[in-house]
Amino acid sequence: MYYLKISPTPLDVHALYEKLKDPQYGGIVTFVGTVRQWTGDIETQTIDYSAYPEMAEKQLNKLAAPIEAKGARVVIAHRVGHLDLTDEAVFVGVAAAHRAEAFEWCQYLIDTLKTEVPIWKRETDTDAVRWGD
Amino acid sequence: MYYLKISPTPLDVHALYEKLKDPQYGGIVTFVGTVRQWTGDIETQTIDYSAYPEMAEKQLNKLAAPIEAKGARVVIAHRVGHLDLTDEAVFVGVAAAHRAEAFEWCQYLIDTLKTEVPIWKRETDTDAVRWGD
Amino acid sequence: MQVTIKLFAMLGEQLGATVKLDLPAAPTAADIKPALQTAYPAVRQLLATARLAVNQEFVEDDAQPISATDEIALIPPVSGG
Amino acid sequence: MQVTIKLFAMLGEQLGATVKLDLPAAPTAADIKPALQTAYPAVRQLLATARLAVNQEFVEDDAQPISATDEIALIPPVSGG
């Protein structure tokens, strides 16, 4: 039932959100990560995301399955390729019966994605090129 | 800068989300509350929301101002009138530099809205009409 | 002194969107709910759970004076969202 | 035994998307990073911070045997999202 995708196509945030709507759910929490201009004194111009796509999708499945087993719906999409300022890099959405669990699970998924899913960013900043930490 | 609205017009979730995008923010968290069909054994058919609109908008301003003062952007819209299953009743969005604060503030806003903002629901369930608790 | 009180949700359904209420001279916020409960004993319990708002602000201080031009409302437990 | 190792991010930029590596007979997961560090001392530190994946799963057990048909990858610290 859940939808997980890693793709170079720009994220269609509204279409991803619509996948979460269902009469059985009362709360939908989404997180969208966008390309931010400033990190302290460092100015970012663009970000290139790359992935180990087969493993990344397997890892996303491992994260999403236990949340869905609790009755929620999970939608995750991550973009790869060349992104400009304000472009959406990632969408994580959870629909659940009640809002507290939707918040908890959405935050768990993005926090865990950021350590366990093989995707990397390469920032082109005004002063240097940096691989994400 | 923030946008707060109470209106009988159906919520345009995508337009509300777009108001949150800005190069200074890297994380956007949104909560959408929709009309759920089942609450235990009670089946909901429709919900009518009513408000004390002038006071509700004042209360939303009081909630949003301190969050915006911390550098985030807040967008809140609540629908009034007659809603069917899966219709969006409320949108609460927070854009912030970092995701942890966006999650925290979005959840704070919806939790506080639910106790401090004069809006009421009147559920038409299959067995009875109920005012929200 | 007569004041008009806005009512909402189940209270509005029971008593109408507004009611007029006679208060003693120099009234304070603390006088309103008891006077309403005397006038409308059938909704005594609903009135007890409602919060008073004056000029679109929840009243924090029961000693707040009430004037005839204030916008007074009773706010039943809210259930938006 | 020769294996092919997939590399990503800064490691892929430095050494290419794949490298071939000779391992002793009956190798285990524990043999891979030291052999790579010997072959590519310039990226010793980058290799140290990477995690090993075999058949698209992070390796939890250093004693896991490695066969010539396994898909082996080194995963630098991820930075998606």
TrEMBL record, chains A, B:
It comes from the Bacteria. Gene3D superfamilies: Molybdopterin biosynthesis MoaE subunit. Coiled coil: none annotated. Pfam families: MoaE. PANTHER family: MOLYBDOPTERIN SYNTHASE RELATED. GO terms for biological process: Mo-molybdopterin cofactor biosynthetic process. This is Molybdenum cofactor biosynthesis protein E. It comes from Levilactobacillus koreensis.
From TrEMBL, chains C, D:
Keywords: Nucleotide-binding. Belongs to the MoaD family. One of its GO terms (molecular function) is nucleotide binding. It comes from Levilactobacillus koreensis. This is Molybdopterin synthase sulfur carrier subunit. GO terms for biological process: Mo-molybdopterin cofactor biosynthetic process. It comes from the Bacteria. GO terms for cellular component: molybdopterin adenylyltransferase complex. Pfam families: ThiS.
